[in-house]
Amino acid sequence: MQFATLTRSILLDLQSKGYNILTSKNRIDDENPTWYPISVPNVWDYLLQLDGKTKVMSFQEPAVLVIEDALLNVEDEQLDGEVFIEDDHYLRLNQRLHIYNQYYQFVANPEVYDFSFDPQRLIIRNYALHTGDHSMYLDYLQLHYPEHVAVGMKDLESLTRSLICLDSTQAHNWFMMHKVAVIESDIWVCDEDAILKVLAVQGDDYRWNISGDTEQLIYNRIAPQDLLPMHDLFWIDSRVRKEI
């Protein structure tokens, strides 16, 4: 358990876990509130009840943030304060680094890998996207790929703004709406935290061969209809570009 800087990635993660409101003991005009995530049956009823208590008991208005509204209407730089979270991401990060290293041996043989195919980089990038903490990824790039720092961090910030989390029905509708033909994962496609990139969209004269091989732990390519049964939640890079 820890406090983390409030970011869009944190809001998405909390929403995926069923939270819908951030509440605080701070007042609404405080510049650096401390947030606590809660889940209420009806957001509107909760806000009405809170407003009634504030008026009746002459309380100063507390800071409250509706997660869905913030995701739709608030930019990352407008989010203030720190939020209390149960941090299991760091544990999963270390577990992945251990398991992937057993498979790829990147600690013993770093010279084998480059920026485009570096499992360790992808795992740390995935952690940064889920937690909103970009410092570890920046440190990794500065140490191993200094020539890619500017582009790598720019892409991370762009994806942070574009990342969406959908349930299976929403994901199916989103794939259909964008006519998605092929998806590529960053880490193993069966992992619930995999970030899914739209690699290709359908066109009249477009064909794509998919290997269907999920033995590799990074860059798995898969069709949406094969992916949907694998997850309850889908973390999607919503930047769609048609490649013919």
In N-to-C order, the SSE pattern is EHEEHEHEHHHHEHEEEHE
Structural class: alpha+beta
Low-confidence stretches: 204-208
Q: Round the mean pLDDT to the nearest integer and report it.
A: 86
Radius of gyration: 20 Å
The strand line-up of the biggest sheet is 1-5-3-2-4
Shape: globular
**Alpha plus pi helix count:** 9
How many individual β-strands? 10
Q: Could you tell me how far the N terminus lies from the C terminus, measured between alpha carbons in angstroms?
A: 46 Å
Most strands sheet: 5 strands, mixed
Our estimate of the beta-strand percent is 15-25%
Percent range for helical residues?
25-40%
Characterize the structure shown:
The chain has 244 residues and is α+β, with helices and mostly antiparallel strands. Strand 2 (21-27) and strand 3 form a beta hairpin. Helices cover 40% and strands 20% of the residues. The chain has a five-stranded mixed sheet with strand order 1-5-3-2-4. A five-stranded mixed sheet has the order 6-10-8-7-9, with helices on both faces. The longest helix is centred in the middle third of the chain and has 16 residues, at 89-104.
Give the SSE layout.
Layout (H helix, E strand, L loop, with lengths): L1 E4 L2 H9 L4 E7 L6 E5 L4 H14 L5 E5 H7 L8 E4 L3 H16 L14 H13 L3 H10 L4 H14 E5 H10 L2 E6 L9 E7 L19 E2 L1 H4 L5 E5 L7
Parallel strand pairs: 3-5, 8-10
Antiparallel strand pairs: 1-5, 2-3, 2-4, 6-10, 7-8, 7-9
